[in-house]
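Re-run with default settings, no changes from the original entry. Doing this only to confirm the output is reproducible before filing.
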Amino acid sequence: MNLDLLADNLTNPAFLFFALGLLSVQLKSDLTIPQNSSKFISLYLLFSIGFKGGQELAHSEFSMEIVWGILFGLFIAGVIPIFAFYMLRRKLGVENSGAIAAAYGSVSAVTFVTAVSYLEILEVHFSGYMVAVMAFMEAPAIIVGVLLVRLFSPLPSQSVGMKDTIKHALTNGSVILILGSLVIGSLASDAQAEGIKPFTTDIFKGFLAIFLLDMGISSGKKIKDFLTTGWTTTSFAILMPLFNGLWVSWLSQYISTEPGDRFMFAILAASASYIAVPAAMKIAVPKANPGIFLPMALAITFPLNITIGLPLYYWAVTTF
């Protein structure tokens, strides 16, 4: 692995703002990002990346690579929850294992956005359809996780109906926004896209830095309680994303020859959802403890991916 890439990532302002959020919690500072502002910024990031992905998609010729790319993403989102569930079921029980499996099979839009910024620094191109892949990967993992809970739970009748679960997964706000922005971006002409470029592109990195500051504050508040749950969840939150990122880095060579696309597949496989999945699990599997799976994704896996993960996965796709 190129250590210069790791050093560049550790000195990236976006990551440093994340570290500042962690530090502020340790210092017991009253630094906070208002909840409404945080929600607006997260919506903005999804809108921006979706719109720009749609523009990329509009300039790309339709090919079977796009179809295979989306199918590969769906395959990843379906397979990861299954082996994650079986790894954890004996230690953590059916409900918690199902929720964790769904989180690690689903994706983190913020990790994806950070990866986009990372590729921009390296001046490496990736295809616009990867935004669609990200959006399509979020719901299947939630559905698989809930199905596993229903299959192995001794009291399946207490679970929410599968129809409601699927509806919630597909109508989740982040899925609607990213897919909607993708479609709108693909329909907009170059002149129309140029008109809102100052909003979709120029201020993107600034909003990303503030959002990561907020993520750092949230992670810092949760990590202390999480560490008391033992080494099973901690080691899983560290090793699982690295394993997923590396095997997908290797397998993606049969889907695409573009390093940027292969890197995005790896980061999607390595990331874990801490927005859509907790919301879905609260409805579908109320017995799952968010105090376990939320800190795993947000306080351990997320910072791991944006520090060590990004340069590691890029090294892997350029090596394999």
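Residues 290-319 form the longest helix (30 residues). The mean pLDDT is 83.
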